[in-house]
Amino acid sequence: MRFGIIADVHANLEALSVALKVLGEEGVDQIICLGDVVGYNANPIECLSIIMERHIPCIKGNHERHILGEKSETLKEDTDKVLAWTKNQLKKEQYDFIVNDMPNKMLHESGFLITHGSPRNKDEYLLKLHSFVTNLKLMEEKYPDIRICFHGHTHLPSIMAKGHIAQDFTQDTLVELHPDRQYLINPGSVGQPRDQCPLTSFGIYDEDKLSFQFYRRPYDIATTQEKILKAGLSSRLAERLALGK
Fold it and tell me: So what's the pLDDT on residue 167?
């Protein structure tokens, strides 16, 4: 089977539409979302509705948990304001979906792990090499039969395994995976890339060919920015989209 892997949509309808169009053209068997469907941008209802209507398996990200009251003390003020605005926008069916149908972690029936932060902690940012090494060791001990853990949260596309480190994916890139290695794979962010590349980021996992294909595609950033400003959200959030940071 071939799986479309998306993460950190962050209410960016324009970027999500492009990602889903490409995944549809590629004929994936299933799309999976790694959390943070809401936050930062101005279309939380529309993006959640797409996830719901298309029956896309999706876990909670820290932004969904924040809306449910699990707030982080390190959250920036403008992010907190966006999430308060988002909560007021959501209808009951979307709120209930977050509560009842978005777990914090998922073990897919095809044998891979889905988390937002890391295998160790649902909100851990996998940024430093030590964190990757520690989580790969945890996978080896706790999930010895799991080959891949898909994660998001950092908005930085990457593939990590023992003896395999790759983090520069600013264009379409196919990575062949080794059957005897365990991997941590981040597809990057659909709705707010932070690797200094403003292109939306997502990927396809082919379990038969044992490969992961990164995709980077342009989307209508100007429209997304206009929506942010029209909603009265922080101009900083609009500006960073064009910078990919």
Answer: 82
Q: What is the pLDDT of residue 85?
A: 95
2-243 CATH fold: Purple Acid Phosphatase; chain A, domain 2 (3.60.21)
For the beta carbon of residue 145, count every other beta carbon within 10 angstroms.
6
Give start and end residues of each alpha helix (H) in the chain.
13-26, 44-53, 62-67, 77-89, 92-101, 129-142, 221-230, 235-243
Could you give the CA distance from residue 15 to residue 232 in angstroms, rounded to a whole number? 20
| DSSP letter, residue 58 | B
| Domain extent listing, the chain | 2-243
Supply the pLDDT for residue 186. Answer: 98
For residue 150, the cross-strand partners are 114, 185
Q: Which pLDDT score, from 0 to 100, does residue 71 have? A: 77
Cα–Cα distances in angstroms (integers) from residue 171 to residues 20, 167, 211, 215, 218, in the given order: 17, 12, 16, 7, 11
Q: Show the tokens assigned to 204.
A: 């396809």
Report d(CA 216, CA 188) in Å as an integer.
9
Task: Please report the pLDDT score of residue 63 as a whole number.
Answer: 95
Across the chain, which has 245 residues, the per-10-residue mean pLDDT values are: 98 98 98 97 97 97 93 78 92 95 95 96 93 95 95 97 86 95 97 97 97 98 97 95 95
Q: Where are the beta strands (DSSP E) in 113-209?
A: 113-115, 148-150, 158-161, 164-166, 173-176, 183-186, 200-206
Question: What is the distance of C-alpha 99 from the center of its chain?
Answer: 18
Tell me the C-alpha to C-alpha distance, in Å, between residue 114 and each of 17, 43, 146: 22, 24, 11
Three-state DSSP class for residue 141: helix
